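Example 3.2
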Amino acid sequence: MAVTIKDVERRSVADKKGIEAGDVLLSINGNEIVDVLDYRFYQVNSRLELLIRKPDGKEKTVKIRKQEYEELGLEFDSYLMDKEHSCRNKCVFCFIDQLPKGMRDTLYFKDDDSRLSFLFGNYITLTNLTEHEISRIIKMHISPINVSVHTTNPELRCKMMNNRFAGESLDALRRFAEAGLSMNCQIVACPGINDGDELRRTLTDLKNLGVECTAVVPVGLTRYREGLYPLTPYTPETAAETLDIIEEFGDKCREECGRRRFYAADEFYIKAGRKIPEPDYYEGYPALENGVGLIALMREEVAFALEDREPDENIKRTVSTICGECVYENLLITLAQITGKFPNVKINLYKIKNDFFGGHIDVTGLITGQDLIAQLKGKELGEKLIIPSCTLRFEGDVFLDDVSLEQVEKELNIKVTVSDGSGESVVTEVLE
């Protein structure tokens, strides 16, 4: 394989050596270039030999000397330099399979790409990896690698992922561990399927492999599950039982190796009716992307942001913000830190019921624009409405249902601002 160069940055190392758009990059220092990982890994050296194929078919060797890690200045058609790898599984808990029809196409794409795991922290299932890719990850010592494990029981994993290769693909975990690669794992816990004794087995296996961090999250179920595998939500009792197992393993790891390593998502504490742990419990928050420690971090950041602000009774305003039903009580406590120091500031916190997805979806990140508008009409909103960025797509302009911020402003007749989710941002949006 080879990759075509789309453009060359002016005055770059490659430009000075006469490399042009339309040339094909075949190899660097004898190593075939297939995609972005090959290119990023092999271009860092200070002495390079690039094998280039010109548009007329002739091949040319270009010798380059540069500073170590200096960019060559080559640009390609896409960031990955080829197509993104999609998921081959049909997991019984897959959230994408529970989406209604008619949403934007990008929401239905299931990625399972090891390159995105390395570059952006995405999780992979291992079922997409070829022997070439496994060997390359080990050779390049790509770390950390983020893996959606769910269970280490091979037969159960095949059943949960509806992929006959899902069990044998677990061998890659062993190979990565033996190569000294750091691994972070994720488990979507489904009541009666991979929790209980099966969860104990999985956590034991991951502990023995020396996995750096494992986050356990409860399955999310929407109302669009017709024809899908029958799953039940966690109850306070089953959530507590699962939480006990996770904390047991976390406590044991902390005693034996000084780090907890196993964490439950905040949802488990809320569903079990238990208090969210203190910030120190989370040891630097290694699994925030899995909803582990988000509430504790928000409280900590808000408290820190308020330290440098003197109490001021002259600040008088009313603002509003929103959240999912599950975090409402905890967020009230967090926002009370602000109003406690600024008594003439009023913050209306509205919990939005997720009528769009229905079922048992109650997290903030899945609030839709239409639910927000319907439930806030006629409510006291004050000077502005603060929207957490987790409810919006990456570009920060529309909700999951394609309702825009401009539509919200128009329908509710209120100024809308976006908080990036940090405590500092929340304090700033409320007070300024």
